[in-house]
Write a sequence for this structure.
């Protein structure tokens, strides 16, 4: 098949004198016919390259001379740092002018000839194919690959085992998450502290309508030991307080303290931290994809792409009167995952 | 006929919603700040003047005794800080029922605002207007303020304080024009949909640090010029897609054009 194909192409395209698709007549550019126009184009290109060089000099001068405290008012563009403006403009212009000059040079002055470069048939000539097949057969015979069974078989075994290390390395992707996706560092009697400041909280510290971003008291210690931020990513919570009669439902009986509710701060959609709390609607709004959770009604999803309610952390007060967790979350926090079902 | 009654229905719904929002919000502030409530000693004449203003401008919605009506929340115990914040920023009196009261030029003079605040404060204990020393940021730590701002404020008001959208047409307003007193009042009273930040969970020194950081944001120059509202990738993306890619397209057309 390749034989006839190759012949057909060579007879029609490559070897005939008349082109199959004749080209339109070529018109020369003004710069090819008029020497003055050519000189003008030459000057244009040279001017662009020279300007580019000047821009670089201006850049260096600007860098040295303009203090970063200087600002300039450009009307509609606003007030901006003079040094930013000068450095950006000179460096940008310098590279732009090199590009413009090169294109102008190629378009107006470089050789303007239209050349037809015909395609060759793709397949090798039939003689070459036959010679290659013969060479291969000779090679097989001379190596003794067929007769020497033991070499053939050991080679096949060696090559078959060669990819095994690549598969063994896959183990480094583990260990499997185990229960870590279902648990956080919250546990019975973990103190609840204000995020960042680490201040312990009593119920009376929160008023109706108060929002507090909080974390477990031992978060910093756990993170330091683990060397990662994983604990914070799962254990961050928000505390909100509403009138007890405004609470329509909770995820468990007695999980609040006098109307103070604790919810995970991690959106159940793709895990953005959320604290956009509209205290009148008790609505928690995720800025990433607008999932909205009703914290007065078990954290259920009232809008957006989240598929699962916001997990609630059961809380109580300890003997010293501080807010603590009753236990870990009773359902996994954060986005859904494969094994969760 | 039907259409008018339908329209009236809608308006009533909004009003009731708004009233409910304001009532709960103000109720919260009342509960939150009973401990710190120290109504500033106001002269009886000021309270009387405030009462006159209240009866003329506020009683229609908030009730003759500020007890609240179907159209407006009760104001007993909301304190002077809530009145000062709402009235001095023009949010109250409300121009029209809406999910949120926008900032607008105030309808009352500073003197009238203090009279109104004194009257409402005389009705029940609530958070007082913060004093100049309360909102002083001389000793405040700017870096700490930045960290607290990013933990507590940034999620709604934007990392640059430019404000942002909430649900159903509600929004967190821009902080670019907020004064230190307004910021302090907003934190202790939790106006409209904003949660409040009690002095127990966010002590005064931390509030001052946040105010210092917001003042820093307000004065911060934009070294790159046009900040495009500081809204981040949305406005910046629009500009680069339209202006940037447009310029690239024009350049490609020029490169490919045939020369005569």
């Amino acid at each position: 098949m390749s034989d006839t194909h190759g012949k057909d192409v060579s007879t029609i395209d490559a070897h005939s004198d008349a082109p199959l698709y004749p080209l339109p007549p070529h018109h020369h550019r003004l710069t090819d016919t008029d020497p003055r126009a050519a000189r003008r184009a030459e000057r244009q290109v040279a001017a662009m390259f020279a300007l580019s060089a000047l821009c670089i000099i201006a850049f260096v001068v600007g860098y040295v001379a303009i203090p970063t405290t200087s600002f300039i008012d450009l009307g509609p563009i606003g007030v901006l740092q003079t040094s930013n403006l000068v450095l950006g403009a000179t460096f940008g212009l310098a590279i732009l002018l090199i590009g413009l000059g090169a294109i102008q040079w190629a378009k107006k002055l470089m050789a303007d000839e239209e050349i037809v470069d015909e395609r060759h048939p793709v397949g090798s000539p039939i003689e070459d194919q036959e010679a290659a097949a013969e060479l291969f057969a000779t090679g097989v015979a001379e190596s003794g690959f067929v007769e020497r069974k033991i070499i053939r078989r050991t080679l096949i075994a060696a090559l078959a085992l060669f990819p095994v290390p690549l598969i063994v390395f896959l183990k480094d992707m583990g260990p499997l998450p185990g229960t870590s996706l279902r648990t956080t560092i919250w546990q019975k009697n973990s103190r609840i502290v204000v995020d960042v400041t680490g201040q312990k909280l009593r119920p009376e510290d929160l008023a109706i309508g108060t929002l507090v971003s909080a974390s477990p008291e031992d978060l910093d210690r756990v993170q330091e030991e683990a060397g990662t931020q994983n604990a914070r990513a799962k254990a961050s919570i928000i505390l909100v307080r509403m009138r007890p009669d405004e609470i329509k439902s909770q995820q468990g009986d007695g999980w609040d303290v006098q109307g103070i509710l604790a919810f995970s701060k991690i959106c159940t959609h793709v895990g953005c931290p959320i604290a956009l709390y509209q205290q009148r609607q008790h609505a928690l709004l995720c800025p990433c994809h607008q999932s909205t959770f009703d914290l007065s009604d078990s954290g259920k999803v009232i809008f957006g792409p989240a598929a699962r309610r916001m997990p609630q952390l059961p809380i109580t007060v300890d003997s010293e009167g501080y807010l603590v967790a009753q236990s870990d979350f009773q359902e996994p926090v954060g986005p859904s995952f494969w094994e969760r079902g | 006929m039907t259409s008018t009654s339908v329209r009236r229905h809608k308006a009533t719904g909004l009003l009731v919603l708004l009233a409910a929002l304001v009532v709960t919000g103000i109720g919260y502030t009342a509960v939150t700040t009973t401990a710190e409530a120290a109504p500033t000693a106001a002269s009886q004449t000021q309270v009387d003047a405030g009462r006159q203003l209240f009866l003329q401008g506020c009683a229609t919605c908030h009730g003759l005794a500020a007890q609240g009506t179907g159209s407006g929340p009760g104001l007993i115990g909301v304190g002077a800080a809530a009145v000062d914040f709402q009235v001095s920023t023009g949010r109250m009196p409300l121009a029209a029922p809406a999910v949120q009261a926008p900032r607008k030029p105030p309808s009352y003079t500073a003197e009238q605002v203090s009279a109104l605040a004194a009257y409402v404060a005389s009705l029940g204990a609530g958070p007082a207007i913060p004093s100049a020393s309360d909102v002083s940021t001389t000793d405040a730590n700017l870096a700490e303020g930045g960290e607290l701002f990013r933990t507590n404020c940034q999620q709604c008001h934007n990392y640059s304080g430019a404000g942002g959208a909430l649900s159903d047409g509600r929004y967190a307003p821009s902080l670019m024009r907020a004064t230190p007193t307004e910021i302090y009042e907003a934190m202790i009273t939790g106006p409209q949909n904003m949660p409040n930040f009690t002095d127990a969970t966010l002590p005064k020194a931390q509030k001052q640090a946040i105010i210092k950081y917001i003042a820093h944001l307000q004065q911060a120059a934009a070294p790159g010029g046009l900040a495009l509202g500081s809204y981040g990738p949305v406005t910046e993306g629009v500009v680069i897609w339209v202006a940037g890619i447009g310029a690239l397209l024009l350049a490609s057309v020029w490169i490919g054009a045939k020369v005569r």
